[in-house]
């Protein structure tokens, strides 16, 4: 887990060790209409969002407004790719739960274990940084603070993935969950305290408060669902857990994207950066694309 390469090899090993083939996992998903729709709906919405941003942003001229729009688009670019992986069975595995877990002994498609949608963690690892980049820029924050939140969100998602994949010990599963939650609270603090104050000073307070509410309230739903779902206390089944995550993704990704985009396309003074925005040399204005 110490590097993206190690993470990729670790996930590949888990997939290869899984007793079910991708074809069998694909069949299992689409035999459960409720589960399949939780993936397919997000593929469709991510595609619509990408096209919507491309259309709405076609006349943007300010480089800072364009950068915010691109960040918003990349959220859905990651999502459509990741949900396609889930729907195809590529990023699914059946994992045996450790001793003492409520789902210990569960069978899935004839295999010991529960269906783990580890591809969702890939979605969050690569999409939430773009959410934070867009939010930070709208708030008028500096890049040091924005990149700090990006680092914490990657750490949050990777440790959340560790919690989902740990089978050696029930205590260690929950320990990873606690670490991930601590990283999450650091991000929430920056959004609710630092960026809220900066947005008021920048002049984007009204918009930011709306985005903050949708994002933070939605994000609190993820650890709650993890705890209630098959990976935690197993109160909710796989399909319901998946739908819970999908609904939260709809709120915190697509709805947030369009709320922000409808504001950005007006190119208000609080959003625009001027011709020299993004230039590394004083007095040099980057060419408009």
TrEMBL record:
Q: What would be one Gene Ontology cellular-component term for the protein?
A: membrane
Q: Which keywords accompany this UniProt record?
A: Chromophore, Membrane, Photoreceptor protein, Receptor, Retinal protein, Sensory transduction, Transmembrane, Transmembrane helix
Could you state a single Gene Ontology molecular function term? photoreceptor activity
Q: Which Gene3D superfamilies match?
A: Rhodopsin 7-helix transmembrane proteins (1.20.1070.10)
Keyword presence, 4Fe-4S: no
The question of whether Membrane is a record keyword is answered with yes
Where does the protein principally reside? membrane
Its GO biological process annotations read: phototransduction
Query: Pfam families recorded for this chain?
Result: Bac_rhodopsin
Q: Which domain of life is it from?
A: Archaea
Cell compartments where the protein resides: Membrane
In the bilayer, the protein is annotated as: Multi-pass membrane protein
**Transmembrane segment boundaries:** 33-56, 68-95, 121-139, 146-168, 174-192, 213-236, 242-265
Family (UniProt): Belongs to the archaeal/bacterial/fungal opsin family.
This chain belongs to which protein, by name?
Bacteriorhodopsin
What organism is the protein native to? Natronosalvus hydrolyticus
